[in-house]
Amino acid sequence: MSILKLEDVTKVYENHVAVDGVSFEIPKGCIFGLLGPNGAGKTSIIRIITTITRADSGVVYLDGEKLSSKHPYQIGYMPEERGLYKKMKVGEHLIYLARLKGMSKKQALDAINEWLEKFEIKGWWDKKVEELSKGMQQKIQFISTVIHRPKLLILDEPFSGLDPINTNLIKDEIDALNQSGISIIFSTHRMEQVEEICERIVLINKGKNILEGSVKDVKNQFKENLFRIGFEGNLPYDFTDNATVVKRDKGSITVKLDMAKDSNSLLEYLISNGVIVHSFNEILPNLNEIFIKQVQGEY
Amino acid sequence: MDKLWLIIKREYLTRVKKRSFIITTVITPLALVLFMVVVGFIFSYESGDVIRIAVVDEGNILNKKKIKNDESLYFYYEDQPIETLRDNFDATVYSGILAIPPLQNIKTKKHTIYYYSDRQPSIDVSLKIEQRVSELIREHKIDRLQLDKEGLKALNTKIVLDPEPITPNSEDTSNLTTFIAAGIGGVMGMIMYMTVFIYGMMVMRSVMEEKMNRIVEIMISSVRPFQLMMGKIIGVGAVGLTQVGIWALLMPILYFLVILFFGFNPDDLNSTANMPAEIDMADMEVLMGQITNELTAINWWLIIPLFIFYFLGGYFLYASLFAAVGSAMGDDLGEGQALTIPITIPVVMAFYIMFVAVRAPQSSLAVWSSIFPLFSPIVMPARLAFDPPFWQIATSVLVLLISALFFVWLSARIYRVGILMYGKKVSFRELGKWLFYKD
Q1: CATH classification at residue B80
Q2: Other C-beta atoms within 10 Å of B106: how many?
Q3: Does A224-283 carry CATH code 1.10.287?
Q4: What angle is formed at CA B233 by the lines to CA B227 and CA B238, rounded to 5 degrees?
Q5: Contacts of B7 in chain A (CB under 8 A)
């Protein structure tokens, strides 16, 4: 069962196609990376999911139902460009946003108190938003996004402007929310965060879905059979018949295996030839490289 | 509906609870009253100097009749010749010597009298002297020419032009009606003009702020752009009504307090300054009675609801346009200012047409402007007290109602695109295109 399913979604603005027949599916309980360069159509896709705009064609299903105007209650969205009413007090601001998400005043109060306690910021209730630092405002922003316990959480660059401590704090909360069953769409340019957090990704470029799958599968799909071997002793004279040396360092070597050969036989071959192997790692491409290569059309 | 209510409540409460709102709402009438009091004191300022004037009436044309004195101006007849008085001037209490030569001719229409002093008399004093001496010379002439005083009094006839309808059944109006209707019309038109501008601009600024601090994307992931826009327009409109309402209550109270504590009537400013002649109190009372009659005779049951209708219609029409423009503005305020011009021009034009409408309420300019929806919210209220024909009111109301709905719809189309559009230079062509964007 998927929490979100896009089928051939297209959105055309007057002179360009922002979203061009995009389809993908997000399994329930997944942390999903929505990736793509600037202007690829990520925001357009997010706006369609959040019902801010409508797709020209194609269908979006949220938790098995066709997307409709009642669904915003089940979605929490933190845009990349975000802000709060500067003159409002933290408490009343959170109540306001929670009530717009369909919570009663009582529910809102309970949930807000719980979150403020969790972040140890109960004392902020009567502070005006403009009195808070940017990082503090981000916390409030995060609370306002998750306050109504959405089924689907969409976070666009959630860590921008946060210091490492608060980044970890929010990261832990995202994990905890995910553990409690909330599915999360995570949109960012920071690939190391994607690798760390996401289980699945979709890569959008020029409005099209160019790559989709689990992080592991994607990496495997793009692996180049590269291995780094740390060793002592001399390499056998006929070593280059078995593998192509890509890079030689002191005490280590990076090789590319022919597709036909597997890593175990290389390892056996080295050991049987008296080489002392300290380490043997497959070098998987990182998402950053895949991202850049895909976007620049190298594959 | 719930969400719209939440938005209205927020827009209203955040503004009304602001210190600046409380200050402007309370301080403005206070400042106005204070201003009136200060101006009142300035105008009623008497130099404090008492001017004593020796009057030398060589031809005895004033016949030693008492010249009217007041707190700062005293006249004393002196029998000594002017030369003697001038020689001993320093030893006397006088500030000046008034020499009244004999009349050359009893029928003369101009007579020069002389004031000897080292100090120029103030304009005020000069006028008083001229007027008071003139009155006595008039009496002298009446005596000399042996005219009948009572007969003379009867010469002046005050003419009152009373407009009457041709068809005998129509309502009779007096000339006062026209006068009062003009006053009411002017005030209503003025209030409309101010509210459209002040609160329309407030809506625009607020929309811009929301867009600039990027809360808008969060908001419209929960509510429809239309709800957000309407919530703002209604909320700010309610703030406007609150403010105008408070002023309407506070002004008369303060006015009353001023009269009570300072013992003077701010209205005196005008009457004493411009009308030195004494007003007959009895006349005044009759006039006040007539005004009250006229005010009660006006069909308030029609005017007040209509005024509220035009207020709401005009406000919604213009505030929605201001909201649309606010949504289209970027970071560069100066650039966006150009977009407000097409909205402000009709408002200002309507304001000027309103003056014409008050003077000539049946002129074709007034009639057509009170039907044209961009002008009617300001022009029609100014005409209402003049009893415009029913068809004109009906047409105007209908046209305004349809137009207000149309402009709200139109603005909402622009608004929904504008609030999410950043970093694009917006032209009118661009705005036109936005109208046809799909959701």
Answers
A1: 3.40.190.10
A2: 10
A3: no
A4: 120
A5: 100
Hey, is B109 helix, strand or coil? coil
Q: What is the pLDDT of residue B272?
A: 44
Per-residue pLDDT tens digits for A100-131? 998 999 999 999 999 999 888 889 999 999 99
* Span A2-219 CATH architecture: 3-Layer(aba) Sandwich (3.40)
Q: What value does the mean pLDDT take over residues A22-30?
A: 92
pLDDT above 90: residue A76: yes
Enumerate the residues of chain B whose CB falls inside 8 A of the CB of residue A15.
Answer: none
**What's residue B171's pLDDT?**
58
Secondary structure (3-state) at B52: strand
- Closest CA in chain A for residue B213: A83
The answer to whether B213 contacts A84, with C-beta atoms less than 8 Å apart, is: yes
Return the structure tokens found at B132.
Answer: 């008071």
Residues of chain B with Cβ-Cβ distance to A141 below 8 Å are 218
Name the closest residue on chain A to residue B3, using Cα atoms. A100
Clarify whether residues B143 and B216 are in a common domain.
Answer: no
Please count the structural domains in chain B: 2
Q: Which residue of B has its CA nearest to A86?
A: B213
Using a CB-CB cut-off of 8 Å, the residues of chain A touching B331 are: none
Mean pLDDT within A215-231? 85
Is the Cβ pair B218, A85 closer than 8 Å? Answer: no
Q: Is the ipTM of this complex over 0.95?
A: no
Q: How far apart are CA B77 and CA B233, in angstroms?
A: 73
Using CA atoms, how far residue B293 sits from B180, B301, B345, in Å, is: 11, 16, 39
